[in-house]
Amino acid sequence: MSETETSRKTYLPAGMPVPAPAHDGVDREFYEAARRHELAVQRCGKCGTFQFPAEWICHKCHATEPGWHRVSGRGRIYSWERVWHPAHPALKNACPYLVVVVELPDAGNIRMVGNLLGDPMQEVKIDSEVEAVFEDHEHATLVQWRLVES
Questions:
Q1: Which domain holds residue 89?
Q2: What is the pLDDT of residues 31-56, one digit of tens each?
Q3: CB 61 within 8 Å of CB 51
């Protein structure tokens, strides 16, 4: 699939629920940053520990109200899976697709999960460099990943 085709295709088929911030607002800034095409994660103001997903307290020192920190959106593939069986009826015609666990070196090596854009049959190598790609929808922006050209 060419870069143009990849940029036009959305990986959220019709009928899939759009991810949204939690009702308690703990992850609101993550979604607001994604809408601005920025990647943000929590970072404790007391001990400096990064964490994802969002929580009301620091995982390490238990300080309350961790702040948000913008990160580069570049990472490395920690793990991956080629999905052949749809987990939701709307994904019936989307298989196969690639899901990656991405480790973010500039955020304390926290990990995020997302789709790897491009050919679903491409060779995927652990430790390959990826960058965040933002897929806009009416009510939310999704964070996806694509390989960084060497």
A1: 20-147
A2: 999 999 999 999 999 999 999 999 99
A3: no
